[in-house]
Amino acid sequence: MLPSRVDLFNVAKRSILLAPLSRLNPAVADVAGSDLNLILGAMSLMGEEISAQLASCLEALFSDTASGDALDRLAADRYGLTRLGATPSTVALTFSRVSFAAGAGTIPAGTRVQTPAGTQFATDADLAFGGTDLTGSVTATALIVGPDSNVAPGQITGIVDSLFDPIITVTNPSWSAGGTDVETDPNFRGRIRSFFSALRRGTIGAIEFGARQVAGVSVVKAIELDNTEGDPTGVVQLIIGDANGNASPTLLQQVRDEELLWRAGGIPVFVLGGTVVFQPVAWALSIETGFNQQKVLSEVAAVTVAVSQFLNPGDTLLRSTLIAAAHTVPGAVITDSSLVLPAADTVPATPDIIIRVRTTDVSFS
């Protein structure tokens, strides 16, 4: 704990009292406006500020205590790492028409489409329709950054710009993925801690670390494939996803490109998206007297969802983790029997499954 101004003022008074042959009266130090009071007051204020600055400088020297700009400087100087910025989501679009009467034409790169809520995307490349083509696919990138740019399948249905054929429609068969906010301090620290273990590269840990260098990637699992006799085949399967567990074609390609820097020479790394499975969670809990019931239930739901956000592909959703998280909510009375569902730890059937819990998956009785 840092010394306060009062602590330093009292230390100065005691030093006067204990000083031999001192002509200063310590009692005068407490007389507001006296010369001694003003001098000791100014000294203690400066000492408090110097102590705070020293503590701040010391905190900035370690990744566990540095934050904000100080953490950015530390990571860049010692590890050559930079904080991942906010990113837009990317998505695969399908353009369709029921007739080719309009003939051939091109949907140019930059064509804007949108959801009913107004979230817009722009196509990444030209999409050429042949004279008899009825459908075509192209990737697109959101025009906003952050999680709000991640939209569900079938939500992109509006076309903002005029097309060569007015009967063309658009949709997104799968989730858009990769939209994230600026990397938080805790997540950045997690990447920093993994730095030295990945320096050798070519290892499973290094391949996972490399995938996490791609903005928008939140969950990663590398699996070394074996043959029927249990021997390594020299092939690695890498399953990735954003915070929701989804992966767009663009996000997958970005990870493939990044892995060229991390995989061992001659060892292919097949990058795939995971399969998201939503797990219902049911609580039967009591609330302490004096606490707002709706607020407590809302916070329990929030920590329940948060627990699943840290699960990588193939990770088990543990009952003990859910219960421990609920214990942190003030006013919630939690016992082992408070968690009704899942009745046991939820173990993914295959390594590519990513377990997630949405707010709508949480219920109370």
Question: What's the layout of helices and strands?
Answer:
Elements: H1 5-18, H2 35-59, H3 68-78, E1 90-96, E2 105-107, E3 112-114, E4 120-123, E5 127-129, E6 135-142, E7 158-159, E8 169-171, H4 185-193, H5 204-211, E9 219-226, E10 232-241, H6 249-259, E11 269-273, E12 275-278, E13 281-283, E14 286-287, H7 293-309, H8 319-327, E15 332-333, E16 339-341, E17 353-356, E18 362-364
Parallel strand pairs: 10-11, 12-17, 13-18
Antiparallel strand pairs: 1-6, 1-8, 2-5, 3-4, 3-7, 4-6, 9-10, 13-16, 14-15
Helix pairs in contact: 1-2, 7-8
CATH class of the largest domain: Alpha Beta
Provide the domain count.
4
The overall pLDDT average reads: 92
Q: What is the annotated CATH architecture of the largest domain?
A: 2-Layer Sandwich
How many strands in all? 18
Distance between the termini: 45 Å
Tally the helices: 8
The amount of helix comes to 25-40%
Stated plainly, the CATH topology of the largest domain is called: GMP Synthetase, Chain A, domain 3
Which outline best applies? elongated
Order of helices and strands: HHHEEEEEEEEHHEEHEEEEHHEEEE
* Low-pLDDT residue spans: none
As laid out across the biggest beta sheet, the strand order is 7-3-4-6-1-8
**SSE-based structural type:** alpha+beta
Spatial extent as radius of gyration: 29 Å
Largest sheet: 6 strands, antiparallel
Which percent band covers the strand fraction?
15-25%
